[in-house]
Amino acid sequence: MVHATYETFLENHRNQLESSGIPSYFWATLFQKIIKQTFDAGNIFSLLQIDYEDDERDKYDPVWQLQIKVEEGVKHTDPHHIYLIDHAWTFRIEHARNQLLQIESLRERMATIMGIDSELNKNELCSKLLDEMWKYTNSYSIGSALCSKLLDEMWKYTNSYSIGSAENIEERLPVWYIMDEVGSAIQHNDKPNFRMVPSKSACQFGILWTK
Is residue 52 included in any domain, yes or no? Predict the structure, then answer.
């Protein structure tokens, strides 16, 4: 295994960090979290289900919201407040229904994220999940020049998410993903106090930091 150094990390990814708008005082913490695969956003955030009381939730209304749970709050200049946001489900379109039908834990997790009754008949639940999931999905292409280069480099920093280089048409097709409970609860705001961008290290997680 190659033992990466922070200096090597910056040599390979400085341009990507800068283009993503991640302030430099977060870089050392981000490096440590990537090589250790540290997903610790749950130490800072509470996930709260939104109660619409007597109003019916509209199709595009959020199901969950995040709340900072530490009493001291979060300072945007604190270099420790940058977080990796995992993928809950990564899939190709042609395999999505079968995966939902075959994997009970996946169905239940997606139902929780999307606010759908997990006690529904399996086929009915899968149909509802497939209808709803597009509000939560993002995609990337393994065959893009950027991802191909990053796939060659990323193994210096992480041991997970094994994908080879794109060598045929199937591998160049988009790979779709849904973020985990924290990532899926993040909503757009015109005056944000956090920002999240997709990772450019083979696109297998998001990066969230304070603004």
Answer: yes
